[in-house]
Amino acid sequence: MGPLNIALIVVWALSAVASIVFVLMHSGKGTGVSDMIASSMYNSNAGSGVWEKNLDRLTVISCCVFAATLLIFMLTFPQGSLG
């Protein structure tokens, strides 16, 4: 495994963790983990505010980075030999 694959694994893992954190930070219906984490950051009436829009952008960006690194990793991963 070369240095490109090692760098891709690091970026892939960081984007996976970031995607999970950003999804959990989204405001929910008032129950669950998202309300416990995000209730102190903004009130329930500010769902369409700047914070929510930026959180949406960050979530989409981290998911796109995750998908792109996964596709690149699929093409560059060294395959083993059979037999």
From TrEMBL:
Family that this chain belongs to: Belongs to the SecG family.
Membrane-protein topology: Multi-pass membrane protein
Main location: membrane
Pfam families tied to this protein: SecG
Function: Involved in protein export. Participates in an early event of protein translocation.
Gene Ontology terms: cellular component: plasma membrane
Gene Ontology terms describing biological process: protein secretion
InterPro entries: SecG
Record-annotated membrane-spanning stretches: 6-25, 58-77
Protein name as catalogued: Protein-export membrane protein SecG
Keywords associated with the record: Cell membrane, Membrane, Protein transport, Translocation, Transmembrane, Transmembrane helix, Transport
GO molecular function terms attached to this record: protein-transporting ATPase activity
Listed NCBIfam families: secG
Keyword hit for Cell membrane: yes
Cell location: Cell membrane; Membrane
